[in-house]
Amino acid sequence: MLQIDSIAVDYDRIPALTNVSIHVNPGEFVGVIGANRAGKTTLLRAISGLVPVHAGHIMFAGERIDGLASHRRPELGIAHVPEGRQVFPRLTVEENLILGAITPASKPARNQRIETVYALFPKLAERRKQAAGTLSGGEQQMLAIGRALMLDPRLLLLDEPSMGLAPIIVDEVYSKICEIQKLGLSILLVEQNVPMALGVISRAYVLEHGEVSISGSAEALKTDPGVRTAFLGL
Ligand code: ATP
Fold it and tell me: Where is the ABC transporter domain (predicted)?
């Protein structure tokens, strides 16, 4: 589904990613874990075309996409839930969802998709006329995910969905993400909350200073001495 080979991204010539290679198989739930500033957000932004890659290449569903404009990538089925949710605070829940149907293909099916999103997130249905800025953090996270699902994507990019949420709400958000993954989507999840991520994903890459330092199954990483010391506090 997604194949990234040896990409590099710089900000003002300062490297943020170097020689990063990762892949996600169809229907797979893959994580990228790492500390602050490791380059996790930059990786998702490179896949979405929000930052240019200056080396390597990115393939999606057999097509090379790293030269494509960012607005073309949702058309191929890539949906990005950004860090910090970035809902439109003054618009209602429903208006935010409508704006998620951004591509020509998703617009005709928009009303049907809204109902699919409401079935998945009944709390959003209850609050459909409420301004998004008045929702709780967990509800805003669900709205951001729901907005991405309006594209009926094949690959969902999730940037730190646990950020700023109480542990009980993180559990709720993650149980929804697992439900979504069971629908057959491929998911690439970026997280600092490593215990949470390793509890749900099947494979992960550890990003350190813009490079992949370790990768493997979630089970293998849970027992890796470096991961246990650096990220699991063991
Ligand atoms: P966090 O969890 O704190 O969001 P991260 O792992 O997602 O961290 P990035 O946000 O991708 O890391 O940042 C990687 C590096 O790139 C950091 O050194 C950061 O300071 C730098 N960086 C990120 N965005 C920019 C930008 N717009 N301009 C300049 N440097 C940036």
Answer: 2-234
